[in-house]
């Protein structure tokens, strides 16, 4: 696991530069780098943050050899090197990051999209390390135990884009695979419209090329059991992306409603945010303000 911060490494002595530290957990096919612009925006506001690379992500993530070959032969069937990565391993990476910053007065755990699975499991396993949960259009397993359970709901499938982006059989490959090296302009445009529709085209090319192809199969398919005594005791905020085409507003509302019904002692505080699924790319200053607003 690797972590990054916009400030110097934390020392064991000296005054803390901020009341709150934001621990940032990325979504599918991304890595700690996705948060860089948001971290700069947070730093300008005097806030400290720590971004996590989940197992199988980041610049050390293994790539399918066929991804880089001419014509990409076998990309839709080649077994993923991440097939054995478990949700528990991903959650442990988050717990390790949380433990490293526990000396701050307040630790806010932020997750995006599929990152809600390891973040939620980490909070359930170690609630003493988390003072606040912030879900950025991310999976909340309080109502249904797997992200896949929401992704197949009518609230999601009725309007979501991107159904044709996945390659092959995820269970056979061991990963949910996309092709960020596709030479097909229609494929690239569909990925942009799904995840980055409000990012300028000239900027999107950079994001597209930096994506990893594989999300470990276990992340959206492993059931998570949350309890009122542990996960349920942590104050929670949901940043609702109003124009999200990947995790639709209807699905976001469904997750919020079912979580509040299952854990009524601490219902979500909902913070609206305009635009699509990737505000860290399109509107990092607005995202930072939404995060700071919960401080």
From TrEMBL:
Transmembrane segments: none annotated. GO terms for molecular function: methyl indole-3-acetate esterase activity; methyl jasmonate esterase activity. Pfam families: Abhydrolase_6. This is Alpha/beta hydrolase. Residues 22-290 form the AB hydrolase-1 domain. Signal peptide: none annotated. Keywords: Hydrolase. It comes from the Bacteria.
């Amino acid at each position: 696991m690797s972590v990054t911060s916009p400030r110097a490494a934390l020392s064991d002595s000296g005054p803390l530069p901020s009341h709150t530290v934001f621990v940032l957990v990325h979504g599918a096919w991304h890595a700690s780098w996705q948060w860089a612009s948001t971290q700069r925006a947070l730093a300008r506001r005097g806030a400290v943050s720590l971004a996590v690379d989940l197992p199988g992500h980041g610049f050390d993530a293994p790539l399918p050899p066929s991804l880089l070959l001419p014509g990409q032969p076998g990309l839709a069937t080649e077994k993923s090197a991440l097939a054995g990565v478990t949700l528990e391993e991903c959650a442990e990476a988050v717990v390790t990051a949380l433990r490293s910053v526990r000396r701050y007065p307040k630790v806010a755990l932020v997750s995006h999209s599929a990152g809600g699975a390891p973040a939620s499991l980490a909070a359930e396993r170690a609630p003493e390390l988390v003072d606040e949960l912030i879900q950025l259009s991310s999976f909340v397993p309080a109502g249904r135990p797997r992200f896949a359970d929401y992704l197949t709901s009518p609230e999601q499938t009725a309007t979501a884009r991107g159904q044709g982006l996945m390659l092959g059989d995820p269970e056979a490959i061991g990963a949910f695979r996309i092709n960020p090296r596709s030479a097909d302009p229609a494929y690239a445009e569909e990925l942009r419209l799904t995840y980055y529709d409000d990012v300028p085209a000239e900027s999107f090319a950079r994001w597209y090329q930096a994506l990893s192809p594989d999300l470990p199969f276990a992340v959206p398919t492993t059931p998570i059991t949350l309890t009122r005594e542990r996960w349920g005791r942590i104050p929670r905020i949901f940043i609702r992306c109003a124009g999200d085409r990947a995790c639709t507003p209807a699905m976001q509302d469904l997750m919020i409603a079912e979580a509040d019904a299952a854990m009524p002692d601490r219902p979500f505080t909902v913070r609206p945010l305009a635009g699509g699924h990737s505000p860290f790319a399109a509107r990092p200053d607005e995202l930072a303000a939404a995060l700071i607003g919960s401080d």
